[in-house]
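Troubleshooting entry. The earlier prediction with zinc ion gave an output that would not parse, so I re-checked the input for stray whitespace and re-submitted. Clean input:
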Amino acid sequence: MIVRVPDLSSEVRSIDFTESPAALNEVLASSRRWSEQRFDEELHVDAEIYKTGSDVYYAGLIEGAVTCACPRCTDEFRWPLRREFRFVIVKADPDRDFEDDLGLDHYEGDEIDLGRLAREQALLALDDSALCSETCRGLCAHCGVNLNRETCDCPRHDRH
Ligand SMILES: [Zn+2]
Ligand SMILES: [Zn+2]
């Protein structure tokens, strides 16, 4: 979703769009940290945008889900994503460095790629310690069975 800055005004405009799993997975692939995660569903973006001078205000909500492997039992499960965001997007200025400023972004020329910002927000909503269930019993350290589905006769003295 690309918006043209000259088309924006001080009047708040709602802007809803979706990002495809393919586009999201591309961002995931570029970040090694999330190798256990995969997007199977579209990400919904429900936002508002307006402009004051050359500054663009873009705020809203992303909602979707990611498929991830439970770090305890290795089963895949669906983890809902929901995150509010708020950006001020300012015209690029070579004399200023915005790199580390969360919530501040910049644009060059006349166009802003709102999809890119939404995909970044989706990655920020990921959690690699999320479990399939709070009560996940994990795998048996001795025989490897999934203790959510099976029981085994191994000693349990090593359980935390
Ligand atoms: Zn689990
Ligand atoms: Zn066992």
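This one parsed fine. Residues 114-124 form the longest helix (11 residues).
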